[in-house]
């Protein structure tokens, strides 16, 4: 299978991996034809990339970033409980986090168990989902990435569970922000951006009043937009004033945001998202955490079409766990001429390197 930008897929191409809806039900199965109408509908539903059938790549496997059953159950709980919070805020009622904290804790336990059993670099590109509300999936994705990074940093089980809760609830304050602002396709006005920035403080206020959630969970919501150089919000605190968990969540929050399709811009590929993080390493983000994160995620996921130096091009066939930036590539052409496919393990053939990725989207907007 090959990863393809939806805006580059030709009509009647066949799907190589299912596409799910918000409820975890398969909208399109393997082998489904991507007609012009289907492609248009997928674009409307926020899909940027799909896996398609492609000659010579039939045996390339792309594993789900998380067990589909866990994702389905988690999204259901997140949606129901976040909407309950939204309703309480709309009615100006006190938000009762104590009544739902156990269900959030259960999600973290399930996801943590799945992450601890994962032996491969994590890639959520494989989980192709048509969603109506971005925040639910973003909250889960940030939890998965945070736990993966926390695991790589050597956090113990108790620390990971606390980190997971902070990640899952980091954006709870956005349930008070108007959907018109969150989903606006045009550039936000200064007033609208100020309104969005309030979600950190509102999230802190909601969570700190809970008797069953730790104050650390509240501070993850409060601090995840703070930056090392003091340029973040809401308090412009710096470096050591920011809790390490908030630094972790801040990094993966940006990564998931830029590698997910948004109403105002298309998704970046993982290596592009990491380039963005590295551009802020040492000033905005903790350099060691960014470096560790780059070794935790699949920078070049299986199925991605790439060009190598020396005029060769092909498809990523496998990720090397010990060196995600040096995957195995199935070379399928040389200087534009098809050849009998052969494998090149970039972790062993160090003179070969990826020069560019062929799966691209138009219009790149970077905002960290």
Question: Tags for this entry?
Answer:
alpha+beta, Molybdopterin biosynthesis moea protein, domain 2, Hypothetical protein af1432, SH3 type barrels, 3 domains, two-stranded antiparallel sheet, 11 strands, disordered C terminus
CATH class of the largest domain: Mainly Alpha
The oligomerization state is single chain
Number of helices: 11
Q: Cα distance, first to last residue?
A: 32 Å
Can you tell me the CATH topology of the largest domain? Hypothetical protein af1432
Structure description:
This protein is an alpha+beta fold and about 375 residues long. Helix content is about 40%, strand content about 15%. The protein is built from 11 helices and 11 strands. This is HDIG domain-containing protein. It comes from Alkalicoccus daliensis.
């Amino acid at each position: 299978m090959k990863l393809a930008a939806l805006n580059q897929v030709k009509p009647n191409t066949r799907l190589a991996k299912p596409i799910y809806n918000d409820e975890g039900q398969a909208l399109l199965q393997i082998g489904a034809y991507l007609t012009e109408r289907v492609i248009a509908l997928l674009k409307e539903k926020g899909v940027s990339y799909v896996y398609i059938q492609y000659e010579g790549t039939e045996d390339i496997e792309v594993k789900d970033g998380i067990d589909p059953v866990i994702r389905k159950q988690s999204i259901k709980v997140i949606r129901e409980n976040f909407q309950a919070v939204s309703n309480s805020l709309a009615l100006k009622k006190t938000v009762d986090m104590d009544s739902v904290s156990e269900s959030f804790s259960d999600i973290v336990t399930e996801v943590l168990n799945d992450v601890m059993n994962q032996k491969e670099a994590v890639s959520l590109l494989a989980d192709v989902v048509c969603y109506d509300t971005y925040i639910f999936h973003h909250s889960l994705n940030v939890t998965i990435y945070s736990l993966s990074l926390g695991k790589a940093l050597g956090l113990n089980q108790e620390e990971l569970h606390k980190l997971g809760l902070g990640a899952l609830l980091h954006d709870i304050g956005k349930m008070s922000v108007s959907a018109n602002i969150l989903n606006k396709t045009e550039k936000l006005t200064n007033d609208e951006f100020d309104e969005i920035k309030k979600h950190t403080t509102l999230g802190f206020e909601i969570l700190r009043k809970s008797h069953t959630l730790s104050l650390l969970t509240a501070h993850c919501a409060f601090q995840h937009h703070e930056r090392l150089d003091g340029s973040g919000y809401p308090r412009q605190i710096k470096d050591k004033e920011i809790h390490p968990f908030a630094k972790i969540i801040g990094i993966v929050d940006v990564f998931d945001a830029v590698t997910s399709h948004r109403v105002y811009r298309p998704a970046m590929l993982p290596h592009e998202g990491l380039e963005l993080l590295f551009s802020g390493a040492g000033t905005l983000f903790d350099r060691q955490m960014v470096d560790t994160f780059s070794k935790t995620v699949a920078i070049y996921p299986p199925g991605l079409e790439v060009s190598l130096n020396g005029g060769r091009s092909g498809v990523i066939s496998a990720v090397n766990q010990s060196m995600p930036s040096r995957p195995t590539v199935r070379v399928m052409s040389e200087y534009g001429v098809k050849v009998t496919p052969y494998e090149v393990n970039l972790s062993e053939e160090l003179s070969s390197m990826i020069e560019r990725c062929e799966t691209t989207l138009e219009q790149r907007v970077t905002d960290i």
